[in-house]
Amino acid sequence: MKTVSIGVIGGSGYSGMELLRLLSGHPGFRVVFATSERWEGRSLREKIPNTHALGDLAFCSMEAGLAQLGQCQVVATATPAETSLATVPVLLKNGVRVVDLAGSFRLRDAHLYPAYYAFEHTEKALLGEAVYGLTELFRSDIPKATLLANPGCYATAAAMAVAPFLKKQLLAEDTLVINAASGVSGAGRRASEDYSYMEIAGDFRAYRIRRPHQHRPEIAQTLARVAQRPVDLVFSPHLLPIKRGILCTVFAKTKPGTSQAHIEEALEEVFGGEPLVEVHTSPEDIRIASVAHRPHLQVAACVEGEKLIVLSALDNLLKGAASQALQNLNLMFGYPETLGLLYGEK
Amino acid sequence: MKTVSIGVIGGSGYSGMELLRLLSGHPGFRVVFATSERWEGRSLREKIPNTHALGDLAFCSMEAGLAQLGQCQVVATATPAETSLATVPVLLKNGVRVVDLAGSFRLRDAHLYPAYYAFEHTEKALLGEAVYGLTELFRSDIPKATLLANPGCYATAAAMAVAPFLKKQLLAEDTLVINAASGVSGAGRRASEDYSYMEIAGDFRAYRIRRPHQHRPEIAQTLARVAQRPVDLVFSPHLLPIKRGILCTVFAKTKPGTSQAHIEEALEEVFGGEPLVEVHTSPEDIRIASVAHRPHLQVAACVEGEKLIVLSALDNLLKGAASQALQNLNLMFGYPETLGLLYGEK
Amino acid sequence: MKTVSIGVIGGSGYSGMELLRLLSGHPGFRVVFATSERWEGRSLREKIPNTHALGDLAFCSMEAGLAQLGQCQVVATATPAETSLATVPVLLKNGVRVVDLAGSFRLRDAHLYPAYYAFEHTEKALLGEAVYGLTELFRSDIPKATLLANPGCYATAAAMAVAPFLKKQLLAEDTLVINAASGVSGAGRRASEDYSYMEIAGDFRAYRIRRPHQHRPEIAQTLARVAQRPVDLVFSPHLLPIKRGILCTVFAKTKPGTSQAHIEEALEEVFGGEPLVEVHTSPEDIRIASVAHRPHLQVAACVEGEKLIVLSALDNLLKGAASQALQNLNLMFGYPETLGLLYGEK
Amino acid sequence: MKTVSIGVIGGSGYSGMELLRLLSGHPGFRVVFATSERWEGRSLREKIPNTHALGDLAFCSMEAGLAQLGQCQVVATATPAETSLATVPVLLKNGVRVVDLAGSFRLRDAHLYPAYYAFEHTEKALLGEAVYGLTELFRSDIPKATLLANPGCYATAAAMAVAPFLKKQLLAEDTLVINAASGVSGAGRRASEDYSYMEIAGDFRAYRIRRPHQHRPEIAQTLARVAQRPVDLVFSPHLLPIKRGILCTVFAKTKPGTSQAHIEEALEEVFGGEPLVEVHTSPEDIRIASVAHRPHLQVAACVEGEKLIVLSALDNLLKGAASQALQNLNLMFGYPETLGLLYGEK
Fold it and tell me: Maximum Cα–Cα distance for chain A, whole Å?
């Protein structure tokens, strides 16, 4: 098999670590460098479980990583959004393709960044070039991407829960109500009291309600593209006392006459052949425990009258970040989409 | 101070234990008996933390408890619903007042029981007599109650989150979307694999979506009474990997022109003087950790356009069960409503 | 009842918060001030659950607290050790009695501080005056204390597990092996990644093995005093993924001929009348869940041949800190020892 | 590569599930059948995460499994001990080799079974034939095994923590003190209140102290064989509020003159070349979080005077069960020992 050489910027965050673990087990990628300030000089194998196959590769500084761009065909950035905003243009200028796991190139409308990301977007030209990598919904865009914006974790869980019904034009034009809950790793690596064990264990709360979460416009952008009309929604994220996983509970009004059979047909039509989507018939079967440490999204829906409830679940570090990035990398470099993602494939 | 003598049927369930603990510290109640099959003959003090003040009282059988009805002015039932359905009529015939923490007398419409409680209601006459004890909303009904139906945990959290806005006629006649999540104690004491540590830890899931939860008609009944019109709603309960507490996230459409100021005024008007309700301005402040082990409900709301999000939280074993029962008992016997509920009151 | 006026320095740490909660419910103490940098100006009632009875008292700065010493008979210090080392002399000079929950006055040998506390002890004269407040073992010392050194959490759990057998001279002169495990609150309030939810949940590890924990010499000092000979020991603390509680598992060699009956007699003789010690017959009954949120220590022991295993458990924030401080305060001011400690006492 | 055909009896217990997952990813084994009462007829892929590679294989009954023995070269039994005691002779008579993950063939002395396993051993002849598969200590025995007794989880963690020092004759003949703590999966799949979330979360306790745990004689047997003398020990298991992992904290007395260098040399000599043992220098580095979901054992030790403390950690379902079984299966069938155990090996 050919080998694609890849660099990873931001290798000690939770998403970066998962991506490096997946790459270590992928037959078609070779990790050229992985940067980390905190672990510079330490071997990846020592700091990231189950990366034996990376041999003696050690974390390096951002500077040392950038010095090796010439040996890379692609670089993944798994950094805070501000860092990727500054770094991605440098990478592109050096002729490497980029998969950005941060959020800086997900929203096409530059005006949204100050309110949702707290920065002015300085690379507006790139926003038009970036390919949004929600693989199952926009698969045909991905192979040609030079700059791929890997979707947010909530944004993946929410958009995939709703898209089938918009595609099949089953929904009334009413406000979608998206409740979601995420494990703590969604907040990234934190040395703050808010994310201490004492604060998180035994608690559950909503956040980013008054000042809406940055994934809200990302969800709206995806759904508008799917529906080919604006889609109105509210989005309430919550913080769970678990390490990983997202559960999304969506309420929507259907068009009159929409039956459970229509709902199940829509899921089957849109996701039936998808290798990384598991469609269930019962919403009660959708559980974070069933998707943790797996690259799959699970979804089920039921309708009663015109009231539709959809449940979806995924691992925020995998289908919500690293494994979706690898799905996209596979497509960008001509590999089978699930290569390196399914344990034990032979 | 006078002393009211009380019996407790079902003293080894989580709600019954909390009620006995609270009664042990209350200056105006004397526990005559507490029944438990599993702990018959064992002292309450040994099995329930912080019940030192009950002295040597031991759990007895249901039969032995009923034999002491003559010494009781009131009995609290904290049993499965089927048990309370069979027991409450016996208690009433013996001339004691009853506070029922099970659900068998909450719904006034007997036709709802088969679908939601899986039994035919055999005491329809009593449904008309039962007083529904959501204290803050229906306080004036309670002093005279002979049979008090103590509200469900979710039903308290949800109804109190919405009632202020219905009372002030701020809501459009649109479907309320009520998402809620509860700690495991809400399911009662269970020896089932579903509630084992291995199944619960690290997981989060919805339940009773297709076959709706029995608290849905209870919420609808309360809100219809407050609004004086039918209120349409969906209710999605979820199971949290924590021991206790409920968080409720409600979405509603407001009437045009409803401002944040109107919302805050409604909360202030309805709950401003309530000793056991804490109104916050920020939805992000509403946390299970802040209400666990306390008799308070917390609530906050924010509106954006015509979209209202309300957050409420309570301890399912206290304001959702035992402490609300004691609020009601206080009113039924002429004590100050919060007597025995606030730690350290002097 | 008379009222003793008390100030609390360090009111926003976990031990300080528990002490303030207990004081709020105590009929014989009045809190004059409570200091906190982080919460200066905020009401205690708002920040510490179940302190309703403190009314509108707000946290103040250390400076503002010290300005009110004239109104206090006693001050409790619940700060880092370095802070209490600097503050206690000031308090004593102002004529108030002191209960120090930090560790700066527990070890009588000043030479131990650099190795175990990482500071040179600057108040050696006070070390001789300090009364070590392990209530059940040294009760007669306490009423007259001017400076009371409140014991460490591990030190209380470990010393009380062993003391009965040393007192009754049942142990061989062999190394005691003390394993202990504590909930995360034992480390105090932390904004560090080490104590983040992501690091703690699902983990268990030992710490302070090579550079021994500061409670090791404290345990050795207590046991030597009880045994009237030096006692050799190893101490291995571990960090549990729970919020509160300590379990201590001690191995000791007994003198030949020591039977289970001797062991149980020793526990009964030493602890039989103790209101806050629960002696069990089975080591398997000793559980953190049984002592959490309670002021009691639980203990049980079994011997097989000459091998003795003792289990003890306590709540590190209560019997390991705040409730033991209040036991001592009760004795210092002539109150019944358990006043304000047992829920619902009438 | 050749393919060894294997059957698994007891495929829905936690160890059986892990073994099936590992086998699904192993290039040299083909799973012929997997039995499960609870999941008979359901596909393995649906019930066990990350077993995609098993295709459509479905769980079958024990009877149906035994009917396929003719197609199997080896069978793994991951059942309760009583079941494996009854089943293993049947398997052997049918000419298949057996790896028994239950405990029924671990202890060579048949007299120990009634006290430790609560059954009379009915297959004493097989006890002499069984090969004890603690791979790193008894590697040369394993290739020829017909009946391999796969070690217990605690027994692996404890014996490997001590063996290097016994091998190098560094320990005094004094009692070893072995404290260990395990996640809940060690107790197997349970529908009992004792293992409910409500009982486990927030708790920590010892168990099997008075009636010692069945792994105590297993540890003693291994250590006696390594030391070539009887080894005296106490063993205190504890139950952790986590899903998986064991930490073992061992205290031993060394011979006079044993230095930290001697200790580290012993670990290096015995484990230096081991691919699945990680020797650390600091006991504080040994963490359950570092070994969970990995086939490795971690160990470190430090000596102070003649007091040695050793820490070891492993995943009870992997190195304590399924991955050690696969290590042994690899050796029994001529594969490299770590084949199929290291993620991403290429």
Answer: 62
